[in-house]
Amino acid sequence: MRVAYAVHILAGALALLSGFVALYARKGAALHRRSGTLFVRAMLTMCAFGTFIAIARSVAPALNVSMGVLTAYLVVTSLTTVRPPAAGPRWLDRGLMLVVFAVGGTMLAFGIEALVTGRTRDEIPALPFLLFGVIALLAGAGDLRVVRSGARTGAARLARHLWRMSFALFIAAMSFFIGQAKVFPKPVRILPLLALPVLAVLATMLYWLWRVRVRRTLRGLVVGGAPRVA
After folding, report:
1. pLDDT tens, 165-175?
2. 124 pairs with which residues across the strands?
3. Radius of gyration over alpha carbons of the chain, in Å?
4. What is the value of pTM for the model shown?
5. Is residue 225 part of a domain?
6. What is the pLDDT of residues 30-71, one digit of tens each?
7. Is the pLDDT assigned to residue 85 strictly greater than 80?
8. Which residue stretches of 57-89 are H helix?
9. Is 18 among the domain residues?
10. Across the chain, which distance is largest between two alpha carbons, in Å?
11. How many Å apart are CA 86 and CA 98, to the nearest integer?
12. Is residue 160 part of a domain?
């Protein structure tokens, strides 16, 4: 189990470092692609080992297992948005859609149960279950549109990639800076201070979505042919 913890922590550190580089690097440029590739691999490793630990050690499995699956799903669907499998992603889109709908429905059920009964589940209150359950269902609704009408193109394609990859980084940053605040020295263990990197991810995601979907400008992005911006 120590090996699992070590791999989980190392992968999480690599995911955070590469994720922040990819978030602020020029979109589509070489640095963005390389750091994004590392981010994907590190995040999937972190999610796999984190989910295993949550099950094996019974560490708030109701939330941690769901969040591990949701985060991995966001990373995978963000990647396949800009790098679809050569054989066609339709079967993969359907499978991932069913997974995220199941995760979202389960989390909402846990959250509603906690609200109705006034009790927590695994000592976790209702809010995280409700919040991330809604996010999962919204992501599934986006997948349903892809399955029904085909892969996104243009600004919609970039927006789908940006919000999913950024939100996965947001979850990782929140889990580390807030969920694991005890690892920081006491002088800096101040919630508003530790929340800054988390809020920075959220603010940057909203900025790029505004640029791509509202202003509809690609200035500052390297796009040529099929963009490779994982």
Report:
1. 999 999 999 99
2. 121
3. 18
4. 0.88
5. no
6. 899 999 999 999 999 999 999 999 999 888 899 999 999 999
7. no
8. 61-82
9. yes
10. 54
11. 22
12. yes
Structural domain harbouring 54 = 2-215
Long-range contacts of 19-22 (CB under 8 A, 24+ apart): 19/43, 19/168, 19/169, 19/172, 19/173, 20/169, 20/197, 20/201, 22/165
Token pair listed for 89 = 């992603």
Token pair 């059920």 in the structure block, residue: 109
User: Which residues touch 23 (CB under 8 Å, ≥6 apart)?
Assistant: 166, 169, 201, 204
Structural domains of the chain, count: 1
Compute the average pLDDT of residues 71-89. 82
Domain-embedded: residue 221: no
In three-state secondary structure terms, 117 is helix
Distance CA 81, CA 67 (A): 21
Can you read off the two tokens belonging to residue 87? 């054989």
Report pLDDT for 228.
Answer: 38
Cα distance between residue 117 and residue 95, in whole Å = 33
Q: What whole-number distance in Å separates Cα of residue 127 and Cα of residue 129? A: 5
